[in-house]
Design a protein that fits this description.
Elements: E1 6-9, E2 13-16, H1 20-27, H2 32-38, H3 46-78
Antiparallel strand pairs: 1-2
Helix pairs in contact: 1-3, 2-3
């Protein structure tokens, strides 16, 4: 995957976010594959790496909880008719 910190700006074209503040703001909207790709970016700041790991953990936990929720719903519907 390409560098997820590169984004398109209608006035400047393709721009890479390099500041900690800009990168932390972007991490909030990343999905797990984008977080994994961002961890491979050269010169990644430590605080951004920490935020990426935390974001991945939280998103995976949410996905697991959502899957459990869906499975409970299916098992509840299985016996009712």
């Amino acid at each position: 995957m390409k560098n997820p910190f590169v984004r398109y700006d209608m006035f400047h074209g393709w721009v890479e976010a390099t500041s900690v503040a800009d990168r932390l703001e972007m991490v909030r909207r990343f999905d797990v594959p984008e977080c994994e790709a961002a961890l491979g970016v050269e010169g990644l700041q430590e605080s951004v790496a920490i935020a990426l790991h935390k974001t991945m953990r939280l998103k995976r936990e949410c996905e697991e909880e959502f899957t459990r929720y869906l499975m409970r719903g299916k098992s509840d519907q299985g016996g009712a008719q």
